[in-house]
Amino acid sequence: MSKPIVLRLGEVFYADKAWKQLESIATVIVDDSKNRQEFLENLQGKYKDVQYITRTFGSANQTGLFDEELIKHLPDSVIAVCHNGAGYDQVDPHALAERKIQLSNVPELVDDSTADTHVFLLLGALRNFSDGHHRLLRGEWPASPRAAGTPVAHDPKGKTVGIVGLGGIGRNVLKKLKPFGFERFVYHNRNKLNEELEGGAEYVSFDELLATSDIISINVPLNKHTKHMFNADVFAKVKKGAVLVNTARGGVIDETALIQALKDGTLRSAGLDVLENEPNVNLELVSLPNVLALPHMGTHSVETIQAMEEFVVENVENVIKTGKVISLVPEQKELF
């Protein structure tokens, strides 16, 4: 009896051992398509018997998005797509469901590393650390002896943090922020959570969160409902001089409106790990002195990358053995 075939899209950095072990029960093919058109042709050609596909965020550079067009080209043999990431906005779960193809992601394992990054950006933006760093590099110290002329910033004491999206990462952010002395935590989800999951945060409406929060912490997935969730109309409702932090997805924010809000003082500063058109970033945005930005480093650690890569293999192994992935995405949970 022949082994099931797994097609691997994207680089693997730290899970070679796990993939080698998988080869005892499956035939692994590493994609060598140079572009989307070649990949679509290969799906009808040398990949026509593939049953399981794994993909990384970076693999989109070769295949493009796993959108409705691409999914229509998938062979009838495909049973599951296993995505390496908590966010899966590059993949259309509904189009896969129509083809009876399962989609898994990597939840929870990213929570710690992403929350660490979020806290770093939040504190850095609150304290104007990016501005000070750039002044230092420009040689403005000691000409301006007090902190190289960096505007005096603020401490956590007495501040309200508003968490938009109190899921796994949002709750981890909440837990890690508590020791810093913030006065109050509020949150907004589609629905109020039970008291145990709230972790001491108070449920409020979205408008109340905007109006009362000194720091707005964004932790929502990117989908058709959250695209440009933070736009000019929303920024008009925020507390004057609030700090905005985003480690979720760049597309949640309308960057044109964000630039304006940062320039006119509506927002005092921002901490960003994600950008709307990354890696083709808006240099005007990231060059602003009141923006602390990173090139999507939320899970950029050996330990987290390895854990994520190995969990993708676990998903593949589980669906081969049981017919179901471990971490089916929420949109499909009533279908499989």
From TrEMBL:
GO MF term set: glyoxylate reductase (NADPH) activity; hydroxypyruvate reductase [NAD(P)H] activity; NAD binding
Gene Ontology CC annotation, any one: cytosol
InterPro entries according to UniProt: D-isomer_2-hydroxyacid_DH, D-isomer_2_OHA_DH_cat_dom, D-isomer_DH_CS, D-isomer_DH_CS1, D-isomer_DH_NAD-bd, NAD(P)-bd_dom_sf
CDD domains assigned: Mand_dh_like
Coiled coil: none
UniProt keyword annotations, A-Z: Oxidoreductase
Database matches in Pfam families: 2-Hacid_dh, 2-Hacid_dh_C
Residues annotated as domain D-isomer specific 2-hydroxyacid dehydrogenase catalytic: 20-329
Record-annotated D-isomer specific 2-hydroxyacid dehydrogenase NAD-binding domain positions: 120-298
Matches recorded under PANTHER family: 2-HYDROXYACID DEHYDROGENASE-RELATED, GLYOXYLATE REDUCTASE 1
Family label: Belongs to the D-isomer specific 2-hydroxyacid dehydrogenase family.
Protein name: Glyoxylate reductase
Provenance organism: Cyberlindnera jadinii (strain ATCC 18201 / CBS 1600 / BCRC 20928 / JCM 3617 / NBRC 0987 / NRRL Y-1542)
